[in-house]
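Let us work through a complete example step by step.
Step 1: write down the sequence.
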Amino acid sequence: MQINGKKALVTGANRGLGKAFAEALVARGASTVYASARRPELIDIPGVTPLRLDITDPASVEAAAAEVGDLDILINNAGISTDAPLLGASLENVRREFDTNFWGTLSVTRAFAPRLAGGAILNVISALSWYVFAPANNGYAASKAAEWSLTNGVRLELAEQKTQVTALALAIADTDMMAAYDIPKLAPSEVVALALDGLEAGKLEVIGDAPTANVKASLAGDPALFYADIPAALFG
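Step 2: predict the structure and record it as tokens.
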């Protein structure tokens, strides 16, 4: 999959990684870049086509698919984190996380899959697809674990039509979602460059940073060792 000359769509493109994806796709020569958001009037990226899309609203998804038509590259970036524990007073925010991170991603993928024969999908998952470290992350982590499984399943189902499906997993980038954490963070442009390089190289999975690489490597070991010292396990 080469980006130059291709038609692409990015969900959640009004800020953070989504905005960086849209900017990078334009810079790499994509013929058309649809930058989508629930409020497209907030998109201020030169060279893109703003598109109204609420991935939790089936009617919005179908309208966007009809407007876009054929597509070469779909970047499923939109997601939310609500700091919801699984055993809190209400399940409302856990459901919101699943509605966006799992069901929304699946809804967009289903709508565009028939148009992506010979093309590519990139799903932004998380290091939290594979571990948890605090109760406030548990709902998000569960939804991202489900999105990782979704990514692997869709890859198999679209293999016959030769649609490449790539996952980008990362832990720490300098986005609004990570604003409360006073730790070193990668610039969104760095993560996106790595992801798009991996997409063009045909990788099934791109590991976005060292903490994610450490988490992924720990999966073959005893989880008691990992959870005994999470900071050391993450940052080595």
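Step 3: interpret the result. The mean pLDDT is 93.
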